[in-house]
Amino acid sequence: MKMPDDDVEKFLAEQKTHEAHRHELIKDLLRQKEAAIKAFDDKLAKLGYDGDHAPKRSHHSRHDDAKPE
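Predicted structure:
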């Protein structure tokens, strides 16, 4: 018969291993996300987009900006 402490220690060790693996997966996912965003930004730059200026076109017409009196 096993001692309950052995089961607890085994469980805690497994939890620690799973948590470490989870953190590695999260780090990898964040690296992939960063690479995807960089690739997308590079494609936008090739198309001539720079995020510093407001868009020149809008679906709002100019008279929408004027408030009715």
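Summary: The CA atoms of residues 30 and 36 lie 10 Å apart.
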